[in-house]
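Please check this today:
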Amino acid sequence: MNYLAHFYLADPDQALMFGNYIGDGVKGSDFQRFSEPVARGVRFHRFIDTYTDQHPEVFAAKELFYPTQGKFSPVVVDVLFDHLLAQKWDAFHDESLPHFARRCYDVVASMRQDLPYRSERFYQYMFANDLLTNYATREGMEKVLSGMDYRTKFTSNMVDAMNTSPETFKQLSVHFERFFPDLVEACQTWKSDH
């Protein structure tokens, strides 16, 4: 899952949302510079990633894109699952997606002094381009995937995933709809246990 899902799964706990956002920017297990609630968010981020990577529906979704995306298929599926979440947003949240996105940006901004460098750089890009809201549109997704192509060290063509056949997108949607409720339930359990 990508940024929108991570924020959604941590909402409404602001420290959990922030820690979940910076999860990719924190290396190792040294969380001493963060408060415990933020460190918990980093651990939550890692739980979400591990759970997602091991789910059979996610394996099946990656297989759909492996012929065209190869080793980048896991990354493409993460981003496209956020696209599906954004498109189906009203089924998951009472708050509008643009309002939720603004609230997420405000949460990160309110704790900006604790942002790791990598997370700070991406926050500027995410906020300036309103990525969380634009995950819902084809144009927004093309911009996200093009940016990922630009930043990768290896030759990639992730943006081409948006040209996938309607049938493949339909299959991807089925995998998402089977997977996401399992993830939500697993996250609720994790939050009550940790």
